[in-house]
Amino acid sequence: MEATVAITKADTLKPKPHPDELQFGKTFTDHMFTMQYTSEKGWIQPEIKPYAPVEIDPAAMVFHYSQSVFEGLKAYKDPEGNVVLFRPDENFKRLNRSNKRLSIPPVNEELVLDYLKQLLELEKDWIPTAEGTSLYIRPFIIATEPSLQVAPAHQYQFFIILSPVGSYYPEGIHPVSISVESHFTRAARGGTGTAKTGGNYSSGYNAQAKASNEGHAQVLWLDGVEKKYVEEVGSMNVFFKIDGEIITPELNDSILQGVTRKSVLDLLRYWEMPVSERKISMQEIYEAHQEGRLEEAFGSGTAAVISPIGELSWKDETMIINGRSTGDVTASLYQTLTSIQTGKQEDPFDWTVVVPT
Ligand SMILES: *Cc1c(COP(=O)(O)O)cnc(C)c1O
């Protein structure tokens, strides 16, 4: 059964950008999905309508106390032209976990997925098909109640907007340089690190700027308590291959639970490779590198899928990993995940969801 949505189609459609000119999150499609929440009526007024600016009261609580959450996932076209999503149920589950942390009322996960499918049915011509391209999906919720009280809002708006995105690696997958951040932290114990909420990202800009100025692509974040243990890299989860074992920091309340992270772990276990989720310190990584046991390192996330790390700068030390080339496990993970996501390879896990169009 389809959830009922009021659909208003745009009078004129925008020209589609050339696949070579796509930047991340700069172009948006013709339509968007919105619904409203009031504490009396719950989530109401699901609508698909022309993509356009919205009018919001300057006192809307999101502007003052950042009560907001978001998600990020992608739609692809498989070789037969079907529209496919990758584990979307995981994203909507996480949206509700973020909602809970930010005192935002939960959404009905199945209903919201159905709304997304209806939006994609209308916007399917916006899904680029060139190698590495996709349609990025950004669901988000903001507190719209006009009030300066420091308390959860009684009114919210939920949106889904869509953006065609280019290949993360126009010149092919290649390892990047990462700087370990020893001063700033991304998330504190008991804080909001496990939620996808705006403030977690803007608070990382100054560390990112410092890393960029020093010629690094991203920051590696350490734990907020002892600044000893590895947590994440940029907006990605992180993995290290040491002595044949693939290690990723165990989840805690300052690490974002990535869908890609979970999929990487599932794949590695399916391949019967040794994996462990545990605390891992920079000192341990440094020693492994000194002893020639640090074999590979990579980040995982929806945007890049897998991002190999070729160089790690920590204090005054520079560690070159795998001679700055992409490791075998890193390359296999990238290849397999992207092939499953685009329907080019059999999906033994039933991760992909075909959108009826
Ligand atoms: C979104 C995100 C990730 C990756 O999650 P995916 O579900 O794999 O895209 C990792 N870390 C942070 C901080 C994130 O915001």
Walk me through the structure.
With 357 residues, this protein is of the alpha+beta class. It folds into 2 domains: 6-165, D-amino Acid Aminotransferase, Chain A, domain 1 (2-Layer Sandwich), CATH 3.30.470; 176-341, D-amino Acid Aminotransferase, Chain A, domain 2 (Alpha-Beta Barrel), CATH 3.20.10. The protein has helices spanning 61-65, 88-101, 109-123, 199-202, 205-213, 259-270, 282-290, 328-341; strands at 6-7, 31-38, 42-50, 68-70, 73-77, 83-86, 134-143, 155-165, 176-180, 218-222, 230-233, 237-242, 245-248, 275-277, 294-301, 305-314, 317-320, 352-355. The strands form 2 sheets. Strands 1, 2, 3, 4, 5, 6, 7, 8 and 18 form a 9-stranded mixed β-sheet that branches. Strands 9, 10, 11, 12, 13, 14, 15, 16 and 17 form a 9-stranded mixed β-sheet that branches. α2 (88-101) packs across α3. The two termini are 14 Å apart. The model has no long low-confidence stretch (mean pLDDT 96). Bound molecules: pyridoxal-5'-phosphate. Pyridoxal-5'-phosphate binds next to α6 and β15.
CATH topology of the largest domain: D-amino Acid Aminotransferase, Chain A, domain 2
Q: Total strand count, please?
A: 18
CATH superfamily of the largest domain: D-amino Acid Aminotransferase, subunit A, domain 2
- Note the beta-strand portion: 25-35%
> Gap between N and C termini, in Å?
14 Å
For the CA atoms, what is the radius of gyration?
21 Å
